[in-house]
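pls design
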């Protein structure tokens, strides 16, 4: 079995050090990087919940408007727009 030469080992060590430094940078700045990468997205998935079996319900945001998406295994997906509720009106009949 051949051993690594010194220059090959040094190259491998420098590569691994650079890879670790890149991982550390991304790990520390993931919130800011994520915001920069996704700031121009028009469609965002807010939350998703399984309804049992093959059913699923999801809250979508498109251009600032919210929609409720309901899907099932054998049914047609249903998309319902949600009305915006003002903070002062919350909880009042």
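designed seq:
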């Amino acid at each position: 079995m051949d051993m690594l030469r010194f220059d090959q080992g040094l190259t491998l060590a420098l590569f691994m050090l650079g890879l670790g430094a890149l991982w550390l940078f991304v790990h520390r700045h993931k919130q800011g990087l994520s915001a920069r990468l996704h700031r121009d997205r028009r469609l965002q998935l807010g939350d998703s919940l399984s309804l049992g079996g093959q059913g699923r319900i999801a809250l979508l945001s498109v251009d600032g408007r919210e929609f409720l998406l309901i899907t099932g295994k054998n049914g047609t997906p249903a998309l319902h727009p949600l009305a915006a509720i003002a903070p002062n009106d919350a909880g009042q009949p």
